[in-house]
Amino acid sequence: MNVELMGLHVVYVCFIALIIGFMLFRKDTTPVCLIGIFLLGLAATGSLPQSVGGIFTSLIYAMKELLPTILVISVIVGMSQVLSLSGVSDTMISPAAKLIRSPGAAFWIIGIVMMTVSWFFWPSPAVALIGAVLLPAAVRAGLPAMGAAVAMNLFGHGIALSGDYVIQAAPKLTADAAGLPVGSVMEASIPLVAVMGAVTTATAFWFLRRDLRSGALKPESAIKPPAPVIGGTSSGGKLLSGRRRLLLAVAIPLLFAADIAAMFKLNLQGGEATALIGGTAALILLLVSLMAHRGGGFGKTTAYLVDGFHFGFKVFGPVIPIAAFFYLGDAALTELYGHVLPASSHGIVNDLGLALAQTVPVHPAASAVTLTAVGAITGLDGSGFSGISLAGSVASLFSSALGAGAATLTALGQVAAIWVGGGTLIPWALIPAAAICGVDPFELARRNLKPVMIGLAVTTVFAMFLI
Questions:
Q1: How far apart are CA 431 and CA 424, in angstroms?
Q2: Which residues pair with 233 in a beta bridge?
Q3: Of 171, 259, 286, 287, whose CB count within 10 A is highest?
Q4: What's the whole-number average pLDDT of the chain?
Q5: How far apart are CA 278 and CA 74, in angstroms?
Q6: How far is Cα 371 from Cα 158, in angstroms, rounded to an integer?
Q7: Which candidate, 314, 292, 282, places its Cα nearest to that of 383?
Q8: Membrane-spanning regions, if any (predicted)?
């Protein structure tokens, strides 16, 4: 089957290269994406007014696709604020603090608790939820604050965020860009996330123990109070009595556990699972706000939501123009401009994949290395999310050429992008953990560098055998 390539395909490939180049040199990609959308519209329609209007309509399309994800994260962030201010978060995490007896136990307990909380609250809110309780206990046990920051980063912004199995924001973005069901990308990511997480955390712990023994890293005798992470809210407040905090600390995990049980029983994935988690978080926010602030609870509920929305749109603001461009590589082009591609076309990305398969032999090893590289490059902007649509598109292209491995390649690009840009290597992305632990973000990034690079190399080789 011959593939007919048009000017649209050339424009799309050129702007993918430009976007990668801008990310590599840490330049803002939004202008490039907007120009790319305009030129794609011009190549598709030949009409200047339609091309100009297409910039706006493509942003609306991307907003519609991303809005459920933005909203659920915003609500969860608002909920995390009221839990911190009311003291419920302290009570929820305090049992784990009692188990911290040594530096090694501190590292793994902080990491596992961070990972667990991050699945439900996302890593940045999770830092605020657990830092005030577990960090002082870890320091008392002999773990340096830098070690605690490494654990928070690798388990939260690395393992939990790269899989994102509860909120499902990351797999939805990559699955949409690759034209795959969310469930298939999540399933394919499980072994990759497991290998990446095991190798990276074990390597980081080995380096940490080596430096503690050699004296290159020394434990602190005390730790300063954690800095506010989100919306200026500190986690040290106590607006509820001890009995009410205990009641909520037990009830809230049970509610989320019930959500997970419902997802399995009712086979809820993607948008349905997100809606369930988001609705539960909104009800918890309302309940805790009313209990904590009593007569002022209604106004405070709105304030917490507004703060959450501010955080959500600030994080996803840079993602929208990039997603708008990459959505045009698939169904969005036809929806916005009509049938502008040949009748035999299956979308720009699929056409490019078929053309590649017909001209260049593609090997699974080369495909895996390319997806890891693309994912890592897209993470250089420090978002972790702004470029995973690109990873999904490139995965679709290579899997079309290979005839297999679409879900594995998509998941690999997602893992690489989020481990690099989601808050483990880029200094301005890991500020929350650095701030809560009182360490230098650049030094934290340097300490994470070797473990993450080793983990990516091992995971890429592992992926080659899965394709």
A1: 10
A2: 230
A3: 171
A4: 83
A5: 9
A6: 17
A7: 314
A8: 6-25, 32-60, 66-88, 100-120, 126-143, 150-168, 188-208, 246-267, 273-292, 304-328, 362-380, 387-410, 416-437, 449-466
In this predicted model, what pLDDT tens digit does every residue of 247-287 receive, in sequence order? 998 998 889 888 878 877 887 766 677 788 889 989 999 99
- Residue type for 249, please? A
Number of Cβ within 10 Å of residue 190's Cβ equals 12
Q: Record the tokens describing residue 216, joined without a space.
A: 């290159």
The residue among 75, 85, 157, 146 whose CA lies nearest residue 114 is 157
Packed helices 319-327 and 169-178: angle between N→C axes, nearest 10 degrees: 30
User: Which residue type is seen at 64?
Assistant: K
pLDDT per residue as tens digits for the range 16-49: 888 878 866 767 788 999 999 999 999 988 899 9
The pTM for the full model equals 0.69
Pair of tokens at residue 268 = 């809820």
Q: For residues 405 and 194, is the Cβ–Cβ distance under 8 A?
A: no
Phi and psi dihedrals of 47, rounded to 5?
-110, 125
351 membership: H or E segment, kind and range: helix 348-359
> How many residues does this entry show for the chain?
467
d(CA 397, CA 178): 8
- From CA 122, how far away is CA 384, in angstroms rounded? 13
* Residue partners of 294: CB distance under 8 A and separation at least 6: none
How far is C-alpha 211 from the chain's CA centre? Answer: 30
- CA dist 413 and 407 (Å) reads 10
In terms of phi and psi (left: phi > 0; alpha: psi -120 to 50; beta: otherwise), the region of 327 is alpha
Residue type, 23: M
Cα gap 126→117, rounded to integer Å: 6
